[in-house]
Amino acid sequence: IHHDLVAEVRAGVNTRNVAVSADGRVLMVGNTLPHTLVALDAGDLHPLAVIPVADAAGRGSRVSAVYAMPPRGAFVVALKDIKEVWEIPWGEPGRFPVRRIATADHMDDFFFDPDYRRLMGASRDGKRGIVIDMDSGDAVAELDLPGMPHLGSGLTFPHDGRTVMATPHLREPVVSVIDTGSWTTVRRIAMPGPGFFLRGHENSPYVWGDAYMGRENDVIPVIDTRTLEIVRTLRPAPGKLTAHVEFTRDGRHALVSVMEDEGALVVYDADTFTEVARLPMRKPIGKYNVWNKISYSSGTSH
Prior knowledge:
Blueprint: H1 3-11, E1 15-20, E2 26-31, E3 36-41, E4 47-52, E5 63-69, E6 74-79, E7 84-89, E8 99-102, E9 107-112, E10 118-123, E11 128-133, E12 139-144, E13 155-159, E14 162-168, E15 174-179, E16 185-190, E17 206-208, E18 220-224, E19 229-234, E20 242-247, E21 253-258, E22 263-269, E23 275-281, H2 290-294
Antiparallel strand pairs: 1-2, 2-3, 3-4, 5-6, 6-7, 7-8, 9-10, 10-11, 11-12, 13-14, 14-15, 15-16, 17-18, 18-19, 20-21, 21-22, 22-23
C-alpha cells in the first residue's frame, strides 16, 4: 500500500465509511478523526486528494457517512457537526469540488428516492425527516417521522400503483410507509418493538424487519407489501437476540442472524417462510449481499 495512504489510515484510525464511484475508479473515504475526506484511486489505492471537512468559518466536522449517487455522478456526504450536505462530483480527473447544501438541521442518516433526485435525511431531534431536492438544494418537504427513523435501513417498493419507501424507527415500535410522490405517510405499521433493519427484494412481495431495540427482540416480523400488514412473525431462536435479514441475489432465500454466543445464521425460504438451513456461529452480526448493494436493489439500503 502506498506509504501516504498508510499514513492517512494511521491518522484516521476511526475511518467510518467508504463509497465507490459508478465507474469503479474512485473510492471516497470519510473519517471521524481527523476531519477529512480522502479520495483514493480504486486500482492501486494511492491518494488522489485529501479534502478538509469544515464549514466556511473553519469549524471542522466528523463525517457520518459517504454515499454514491450514480445518476448524478457524485458522492454525497453526511456530516455530524455541520448543518450542511456535501455533493462531490467524481468525473473531473484529480479534482473533487465540494458543493455545499445548507440544511436547517444536522442530518446524518440519508435515504434516496429511486432516481436519486431527492434526498431524505433524519433530523437530529428524531421527530421528523427532511426532503432535499438535489438539483436546487432546497428543502421541499418535511416527513412526519417521530421516534428516530432509521433511514439508513430504508427501502422502496411499489404499492397501489405508486412508489413508497419504508423505514424502521429506533425509538418507536413502528415501520413508517411514505409516498415518495406526495411525501405523505401512507401507513404506520405496528411492530413488536423498535427495529433497526429492514430488507426486501424485487422478486419478493415481502419485507422483513426485526425488533432489535425492543424487549421482544427475538422476533422477525414479515410484512406483505401488497396489504402493508404483518403476515408472519418468525422466532428463529426463542429468547435470543435475532435481527438483520439479508436476501440472496435472486431473492429466493432470506438470511437471519441469531446474535448470541451460541448463535446461528438461519436461512429461510423467502416465499414459504420455512427454515432450510441453520449454520451455528458465535455472534453473527452484519452480513451484506454485495450484488444487491452494487446493483442498487430497491430492497436494500445504498
